Amino acid sequence: MLQTFAPLIAAAADLDLSDTAAARAELNQRFDPGSEEARSLNASLVEHLEAGRIAERGELPVCWGRVTKALPESRDLSIDVVHMNGPGPRHRHPRGEVNYCIALEGEPTFDGQPAGWVVMPPDSVHVPTVAGGRMLIVYLLPGGEMEFLKDG
């Protein structure tokens, strides 16, 4: 399964997330969400979703699943996949977060941003929210670091 995510791992590994605009530009350079390679990856991820191999836990508005914890083979990135059509749990990213977002239905946005790469800087806090449809989101977390927070 990890091999499926290899292009995303390669794009996100060793990236400085402190400047989110620069990080997103670099991600688009490394792995263009509009490319043929991305369309092939997206189709594979949708197949995995429909077969119940990813985002297999919970129910909408948030279904989730862990692909791997942060390992040398994943270049110190944990990988979670989430299928969303609403808000998720509030959390903090000690080292930042890289999200690869795929539109599944409608014209969804993730925290107000369209499908593609979305970057959260180190120490950022948010309630991840998909609006306007459904998305499949691959969360890549440096060191696997994320802290769930109480609402408020």
List keywords for this structure.
alpha+beta, globular, 3 helices, 152 residues, Jelly Rolls, seven-stranded antiparallel beta sheet
Tell me briefly what this model is.
With 152 residues, the chain is an alpha+beta fold. The protein has helices spanning 6-12, 20-30, 36-50; strands at residues 57-59, 62-68, 77-84, 91-93, 97-110, 113-114, 116-120, 124-126, 130-142, 147-148. Strands 1, 2, 3, 5, 6, 7 and 9 form a seven-stranded antiparallel sheet that branches.
**How much beta, percentage-wise?**
35-45%
Question: What do the pLDDT scores average to?
Answer: 95
Structural class assignment: alpha+beta
Provide a count of the helices.
3
Work out the number of β strands.
Answer: 10
Report the order of strands and helices. Answer: HHHEEEEEEEEEE
- Could you tell me the radius of gyration in angstroms? 14 Å
Low-confidence stretches: none
**CATH architecture descriptor:** Sandwich
Number of domains: 1
The largest sheet is: 7 strands, antiparallel
CATH fold group:
Jelly Rolls
Describe this structure in words.
With 152 residues, the chain is an alpha+beta fold. It has one domain (2-148): Jelly Rolls (Sandwich), CATH 2.60.120.10. Helices cover 22% and strands 39% of the residues. It has helices at residues 6-12, 20-30, 36-50; strands at 57-59, 62-68, 77-84, 91-93, 97-110, 113-114, 116-120, 124-126, 130-142, 147-148. Strands 1, 2, 3, 5, 6, 7 and 9 form a seven-stranded antiparallel β-sheet that branches. Strands 8-4-10 form a three-stranded antiparallel β-sheet, with no helix packed on it. The protein starts with 5 loop residues before the first helix and ends with a strand. The model has no long low-confidence stretch (mean pLDDT 95).
